[in-house]
Amino acid sequence: MMKKVLALILVVAMIASVAMLAGCGESKEESTSAATADSADAGKTYIIYSDNAFAPFEYLDTETNEYVGVDMDLMAAIAEDQGINYEMHNEGFDASMGAVQSGQADAMIAGMTITDERKETFDFSDAYFDDGQVIVAKEGTKLEDLNGKTVAAKTSTVGGEYAESIKDQYGFTINYYEGSDNMYQAVLTGTDAACVEDFSVIGYAIKSGEVDLSIISEEPANVKGYGFAVQKGKNAELVEKFNAGLANIKASGKYDEILAKYGY
Ligand code: GLN
After folding, report:
1. What is the mean pLDDT of each run of 10 residues along the chain (264 residues)?
2. How many CB atoms lie within 10 A of CB 253?
3. DSSP assignment, residue 113?
4. Helix-strand-coil percent breakdown of the chain, rounded to 5?
5. 1, part of any domain
């Protein structure tokens, strides 16, 4: 089992490095620094929402009582590079989607997968990380064992969509949870036989010893990029700045440094 997990970690590491290499070739021409005085948005404080229990992308550091993670650090580095003022609200994934859609938030960064369906209501930045979904259960559980059982999925996520797409094949029904932490707990306590989660997130939780669960599906499904998102047609300048800042921190090595800090 451990070998399988290691092989999966390797696959994702390879995907991530291909994404990074692709990033290296990007032109730096658009890399404007700081909000210019003639910009209508200069001085504006953007409200940015995020998830709250999605390590290593965003999670509460219980020692400092602050949210940390890849997304938090990327946002800070890009904001510094581009002179973006922002306030971060770590409220959960579904809440972030709702806040952007209702206009309560200007943007979200929450390990959010860029999908064609979401592009109908969101505009996305360039992808900054690639990931797909896996099925996770107590060690020794097989996919066939899910027949007649319930599987945990997280509200509004692509993991939920993936679960919906395979539930008839494996004969399970789905219970939805607001947070990844609630979902893992439901599997650990036996409420649900398995859960669906982004591979790098559950991989991180397993590796850190936080959850004693195993990946039981073969390889990550539907691997796609994560993007920073705004409501469709709104805050285009913020997305442009995010992209310019992302290109700059990739070129400077800061992006690699952030990923390395969280074990990539
Ligand atoms: N990447 C998944 C999605 O976009 C999960 C995101 C999350 O739970 N924060 O649906």
Report:
1. 45 45 39 45 89 98 97 98 98 98 98 98 98 98 98 98 98 98 98 98 96 97 98 98 98 98 94
2. 10
3. B
4. 40, 25, 35
5. no
CATH number at residue 151: 3.40.190.10
Same domain, 208 and 101: no
pLDDT of residue 165: 98
The verdict on 100 and 121 lying in the same domain is yes
Pairwise CA distance, residues 99 & 219, whole Å: 32
Report which ligand 1 atom has the smallest distance to the Cα of 158: 10
Distance between start and end Cα atoms, the chain: 21
**Choice from 158, 162, 177, 228 to test ligand 1 binding pocket (greatest atom count within 8 A of CB):** 158
Q: Is the CB of 198 under 6 A from ligand 1?
A: yes
Of residues 162, 185, 182, 190, the one with CA closest to residue 174: 162
pLDDT at 201: 98
133 close to ligand 1 (CB < 6 Angstrom): no
Q: In terms of residue numbers, what domain contains 237?
A: 45-128+227-261
Q: Is the CB of 245 under 6 A from ligand 1?
A: no
Cα–Cα–Cα angle for 150, 9, 182, rounded to 5 degrees:
35
State the pLDDT at residue 24.
41
Q: Do 182 and 204 fall into the same domain?
A: yes
Tell me whether residue 9 is in a domain: no
Question: Does residue 184 share a domain with residue 69?
Answer: no
How far is the centre of ligand 1, averaged over its atoms, from the C-alpha of 158 (Å)?
6
pLDDT of residue 10: 44
pLDDT of residue 137: 98
Are both 101 and 231 inside the same structural domain?
Answer: yes
Residue 107 covered by a domain: yes
- pLDDT value at residue 263: 93
Q: Note whether 153 and 72 are same-domain residues.
A: no
Within a domain: 64: yes
